[in-house]
Amino acid sequence: MPTQYVLNNLSILCGEKDEIYTYIAERLKEDKLWIVTLNALMYMEYLKMNEYSEALKMSTFSIPDGVGIVKLLKKKGIETERCPGFDTMEFLLHLSKERNYNIYLLGSKEEVVKKASDNIIKDFGTSIVGYHHGYFDWSLEEEVVKDINEKNTDLLFVGMGIPKQEIFIKRNIEKINARLLMGVGGSFDVLAGEVKRAPQFYQKLGLEWLYRMIKEPHRIKKIPDLIKFYLRIFQNKD
């Protein structure tokens, strides 16, 4: 059975990966869940105490996506395995086939989210009831929410990047009737075949972020935040 550890008002589900996934599957039978897949950069954004911070605090719980979060928890005496966001989404896609859950994809470009939808149907045999690109104006979000609800969505995956995806969920969680809501970052790009996931070598070492920086040099601007995160661990600031 996984445990929940509260870090700076964030509830983080900790334990073995399989235990965490089993717990999520059981909770889905009874409760509406908002899951955050927490990594170091998200945590640093959370510490800014803005609307994004309020969003993360409203979630049902976070799970440890990045190796940095695992290290931070270990410093607190909490042992946990990583649950990478992409792996978690894959688990939920398999679960959706088992339980006949309807899936809606929100985010990325129109052609990318369509391709991701087609590939999910082909590879997982699950039901995609709708999708929508993520480049809409906030003034149109009521129309998007209406479409999500009219399609009888069970699992809503939001791939609009940080902080937009969590802010969208925060603004609309009470209106959306889905069983589960989860931000998935760039997972649609991977599922669409537009971006390759990091090789197993990087995944096992928890260095998927490094692979992404190598492949997408614009991400290098995030290095200062990573340095600040590890300094916080070293200085026992959390």
Q: Summed up, what is this model?
A:
By secondary structure, the chain is α/β, with parallel strands linked by helices. It has helices at 17-28, 40-46, 51-58, 67-75, 85-99, 110-124, 141-150, 164-172, 187-191, 200-204, 208-215, 223-234, and strands at residues 3-7, 10-14, 33-38, 61-64, 102-107, 127-132, 155-159, 180-183. A hairpin with a 2-residue loop joins strand 1 (3-7) and strand 2 (10-14).
Strand content is 15-25%
- State the shape: globular
What is the domain tally?
A: 1
Q: Looking across the biggest beta sheet, what order are the strands in?
A: 4-3-8-7-5-6
Radius of gyration: 17 Å
Q: What is the averaged pLDDT score?
A: 93
In this structure, how is the largest beta sheet organized? 6 strands, parallel
Low-confidence stretches: none
Q: Sketch the topology as an H/E string, one letter per element.
A: EEHEHHEHHEHEHEHEHHHH
Number of strands: 8
Tell me what the structure shows.
Helix 2 crosses helix 12 (about 225-235) and helix 3 (about 50-60) packs across helix 8. The model has no long low-confidence stretch (mean pLDDT about 95). The radius of gyration is 17 Å and the shape is globular. The strands form two sheets. It has a six-stranded parallel β-sheet, sandwiched between helices. A two-stranded antiparallel ribbon has the order 1-2. It has helices at about 15-30, 40-45, 50-60, 65-75, 85-100, 110-125, 140-150, 165-170, 185-190, 200-205, 210-215, 225-235, and strands spanning about 5, 10-15, 35-40, 60-65, 100-105, 125-130, 155-160, 180-185. It is built from twelve helices and eight strands. The two termini are about 25 Å apart. It has one domain (about 5-235).
